[in-house]
Amino acid sequence: MSVPWGYLIGLAVLTLPAIPVPHLPERLGTVWYFICLAVNELPLLMIAFFTADTALAASQGDLANPVAIAAAVVAGACVALTAWRGFRTPHALRKALGAAYTPRRTSLARLLSPFAIRPRDVERTANLSYGPAGKRNLMDLYRHRSHPAGAPVLVHFHGGHYEMGRKNTQSRPLLHRLAADGWICISANYRLRPDAGYEDHVTDVKRVIAWVREHGPAWGADPDRIVLSGSSAGAHMSALAALTPNDPQFQPGFEDVDTTVAAVVGLNGYWGRYFGGEVGSAPLDRAHADAPPFLVVHGDHDTLVHVADVRRFAADLRAVTGRVAYAELPGAHHGFDLFHSPRFEAVVDAVEEFATAAVSAPATRA
User: Fold this and answer.
1) What is the mean pLDDT of residues 149-164?
2) DSSP result, 100-112
């Protein structure tokens, strides 16, 4: 009786996201992340794939092998567990934000077509220049086609280990949703390593804020209501910018621009010191009691930034500022912000509620 190796390999890939892992070396953690990404964030499609693949294996007689039967049972249970964890996300977010958090009902059609296609009522103006660094200082602006006035602003920065990535690849479900609900949303490139260091990254964040201050009203934006958001490395640089308002070190040539913001949203963020460990390059090095509120969202299965490190960061920052909401997502890996998954739809609900409250606070309006 032959062993159906192809079927078993497919089942192994479906099983891996359900397994919690300890700290891994960087390269191994990266490989694990890429293997798990689609399975973890597209659970309904993976259930459909598992069902079809198992039916095909049965029709070909592969399930006559007891090893294949046992593997199918284990893989089916793991796929179901992965999906269940994704649908449990609202509970983790409610724990962080309180009972007022009210997730929307997501349609089945949306979850079965999870790719971030821009809604028809949202327009995107691409490649606006906000600084002198060519294509690395370009940004995209999203807004409702009705062109609302006095809209709050969400500015997002992509991840990529500070070495790769671009503005139109991450958190697009978030950008589309908020733009459809009347926000002005900006997704920006920034200078990358090795040509840039952390001071350059933070300066680029502040250049975007300066652009909103000067040009935002012409696009319908309220420049006094800005929320910074970022994924992975983008969360790190957004935090540093928010914690250093009006610091001339990071505002060369535009020292007089007000770069305060209303809040920060960090998705699967890295929060430690920059390459080389320079003092001052970590958000905690810059933390102070007057910092804006933070929403930190992280997965407990993240193999690139271990969840234990993020727990400590959130607790330490809360001890200084008193305004940190930390949501730990069950079963989530790095990069959970790419698709219209059950998990990220719930996170988008939480981000919108948190950001709306932040820009509506009396101190922000003042």
Assistant:
1) 97
2) T--PPPPPHHHHH
Find all residues with CB under 8 Å of 263, minimum gap 6, and list them.
227, 228, 242, 292, 293, 294, 295, 354, 355, 358, 359
Q: What is the largest CA-CA distance in the chain?
A: 77
105 neighbors 87 (Cβ within 8 angstroms): no
SS3 179: helix
Q: What residues does 122 pair with on adjacent strands? A: 144
Q: Can you give the pTM of this predicted structure?
A: 0.94
Q: Read off φ and ψ for residue 226, nearest 5 degrees.
A: -120, 130
pLDDT band of 116, cuts 50, 70, 90:
confident
- pLDDT grade, residue 365 (50/70/90)? very low
Taking alpha carbons only, the member of 164, 75, 183 closest to residue 122 is: 183
The Cβ-side half-sphere exposure at 145, using a 13 Å CA radius, reads: 6
- In tens, the pLDDT along 284-309 reads 999 999 999 999 999 999 999 999 99
Average pLDDT on 176-201 reads 97
Can you tell me the distance from the alpha carbon of 184 to that of 206, in angstroms, rounded to the nearest whole number?
17
Q: What residues are labeled active site?
A: 232, 302, 334
